[in-house]
């Protein structure tokens, strides 16, 4: 009888430990961000507001953007806040005591792209408008572009993605 009670107690303790471990893991996963699932070298597929879609290898990940080398010989700079669906993410719980690197922001990424002077690029906006344009300069919250219709100032927060032909980016 004592053996049966002791076995039951061990089973109950083991179940409590498992339940607690699951609760802790769930709490950690609830703090994960989309960017955490995008890992350099992995293949991902993204669909954004406005219909922009890309699939390819992740080249770099910033605080709120990702750079993907697409299947159509384009490199896409995608603002993560515009992503509606993603596939191929590799979420892992962070290592204990790991200190993440400070990542650049969407605005910093766009300024860097403007500085590269990539020529004509394809811009996709969250309202579905797309345009081929040259990047003139980046303000604090807008991007000035030159296209067939003239000049336009685009709110950075409304840009889903900028696709650059891969051959135009510096190696």
Number of strand elements: 10
What is the CATH topology assignment of the largest domain? SH3 type barrels
Quaternary state reads single chain
Which value, in Å, is the CA radius of gyration?
Answer: 22 Å
What's the end-to-end separation, in Å? 74 Å
Percentage of β-strand residues: 35-45%
**Count of separate structural domains:** 2
Give the overall form. Answer: elongated
Main sheet specs:
10 strands, antiparallel
Helix fraction? 10-25%
Order of helices and strands: HEEEEEHEEEEE
The secondary-structure class comes to alpha+beta
Spatially, the strands of the biggest sheet line up as 5-1-2-3-4-10-6-7-8-9
- The CATH architecture assignment of the largest domain turns out to be Roll
Count of helical regions: 2
Uncertain segments: none
The mean pLDDT is 86
What does this structure look like?
There is one protein chain. It is built from two helices and ten strands, in the order H-E-E-E-E-E-H-E-E-E-E-E. With 171 residues, the protein is α+β, with helices and mostly antiparallel strands. The protein folds into two domains: 1-31; 34-94 and 101-168, SH3 type barrels (Roll). A ten-stranded antiparallel sheet has the order 5-1-2-3-4-10-6-7-8-9. It is elongated.
Gist of the model:
23% of the residues lie in helices and 39% in strands. The protein contains 2 helices and 10 strands.
Question: Main traits of this protein?
Answer:
single chain, 171 residues, alpha+beta, SH3 type barrels, 2 domains, ten-stranded antiparallel β-sheet, 2 helices, 23% helix
């Amino acid at each position: 009888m004592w053996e049966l009670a002791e076995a039951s107690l061990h089973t109950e303790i083991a179940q409590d430990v498992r339940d607690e471990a699951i609760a802790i893991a769930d709490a950690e996963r609830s703090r994960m961000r989309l960017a955490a699932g995008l890992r350099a070298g992995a293949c991902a597929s993204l669909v954004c507001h406005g219909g922009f879609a890309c699939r390819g290898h992740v080249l770099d990940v910033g605080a709120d953007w990702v750079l993907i080398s697409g299947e159509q010989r384009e490199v896409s700079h995608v603002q993560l806040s515009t992503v509606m669906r993603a596939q191929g993410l590799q979420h892992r719980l962070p290592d204990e005591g790991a200190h993440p690197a400070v990542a650049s922001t969407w605005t910093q990424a766009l300024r860097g792209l403007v500085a590269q002077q990539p020529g004509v690029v394809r811009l996709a906006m969250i309202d579905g408008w797309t345009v081929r344009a040259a990047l003139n300069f980046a303000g604090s919250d807008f991007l000035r572009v030159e296209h067939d219709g003239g000049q336009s100032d685009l709110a950075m927060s409304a840009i889903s993605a900028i696709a650059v032909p891969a051959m135009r980016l510096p190696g």
